[in-house]
Amino acid sequence: MKTITVRSQQEWEALPKSFPEFTVIEIRAAGTVTIGTVPESSSVEAWGSSSVVARGSSSVVARESSRVVAWESSSVEAWGSSSVVARGSSSVVAWGSSSVVARGQTTTHHKSDTAPELHGQAVCFR
Question: Which residues contact 68 (CB under 8 A, 6 or more apart)?
Answer without folding.
Answer: 46, 51, 52, 53, 54, 60, 62, 76, 78, 82, 83, 84, 85
